[in-house]
Design goal:
about 30% helix; alpha/beta; about 300 residues
Length: about 300
């Protein structure tokens, strides 16, 4: 397995050619994306070639519409790792440029899918669009593939709970705090990763020391207290996290404070990944430190109960 970054005009390494290709942003690598990878895997096996997932860096909309960047569900490296877990043999990251985005649908087909990747089969979802101004559709792909002697497979829209599975639906679930639905759609807990930095150190004075995360690049859930797993140095640890302000102490700043249960040690400057398991409650002010401590004890016990059965 490999992950290769290419300009659209370059040739791919030989081991990446002659297989089944699926193209997309793949943010989150959710159930729908996994259905595409499963279909590509089946076509690749039938052809005796590799299953190739093609994605973009940066996402095309960031080049077309410059401005504030909306946090993704997954970083590029996480996306590549998840695509490989979903049985892609190789990941091709196309460097998004004005020249790439200026290619017509026909030119993208000929220059990228046929010349660069030597695709023998192409697998896409029902609403796939490609080429300049998103002019190309699956019907375009079907016609071009037929003329070139390639197999084209359209994967139907995947439904979950009576609604379509999509990256936007996953994002919506996360930002409103419905991490259970997000887990179902992603087939895994949503993860946020950051570096542990120095905080107010107030938690240790009340018996609940916290690791404060900074530089988180992916989408955050709604403010609240969550049951989480903290992953540090490859070890998964039970934890509870407060995401949002700390109104009891008059703080309005957005924070990510992780209390690793029954842990003693120095986490400062370490990278920590937090897996969101369940939401316990909303953030709210308490009358004082004693009332806060009593609630934190209840939060920790509930986190232990949830994680003990997960």
């Amino acid at each position: 397995m490999s992950t290769v970054t290419l300009d659209w005009s370059a040739y791919a390494p030989r081991e990446l050619t002659g297989g089944a290709v699926t193209v997309g942003n793949f943010d989150g690598v959710h159930l729908g994306h996994r259905a595409l990878l499963s279909a590509a895997r089946a076509q690749a096996d039938a052809l005796g070639g590799p299953a190739i997932a093609v994605t973009f860096d940066p996402p095309p909309h960031q080049v077309l519409f410059p401005g504030p960047v909306r946090p993704p569900l997954t970083t590029l490296s996480e996306r590549a790792e998840l695509l490989q877990e979903a049985h892609a043999d190789h990941i091709v990251i196309l460097k998004t440029s004005p020249a790439l985005l200026a290619l017509s649908a026909e030119a993208f087909f000929e220059d990228v899918l046929v010349r660069q990747l030597g695709a023998k089969a192409i697998v896409e979802g029902h609403d796939f669009r490609f080429g300049r101004n998103r002019a190309g559709s699956n019907e375009t792909l079907r016609q071009l593939s037929s003329r070139a002697g390639l197999v084209f497979v359209e994967v139907p829209q995947l439904m979950h709970g009576g609604e379509p599975v999509s990256s936007s639906r996953v994002r919506s679930a996360i930002v409103r705090g419905d991490v259970n639905l997000a887990t179902e759609l992603l087939t895994r807990p949503h993860r946020i990763t950051g570096t542990v930095v120095t905080g107010a150190k107030r938690g240790r004075t009340i018996g609940f020391p916290t690791a404060n995360l900074d530089t988180v690049l992916t989408v955050l859930p709604a403010n609240g207290v969550y049951v989480v797993r903290a992953v540090v140095d490859g070890q998964k640890l039970p934890a509870a996290a407060n995401i949002g302000p700390n109104p009891t102490f008059g703080e309005d700043a957005q924070k990510i404070e992780v209390h690793v249960i029954d842990f003693s040690g120095d986490l400062y400057r370490k990278s920590m990944t937090v897996e969101l398991i369940a939401k316990l409650r909303d953030t709210r002010p308490f009358a004082g430190v004693n009332e806060l401590v009593e609630q934190l004890k209840k939060d920790v016990e509930e986190a232990k109960r949830v994680l003990g059965g997960s």
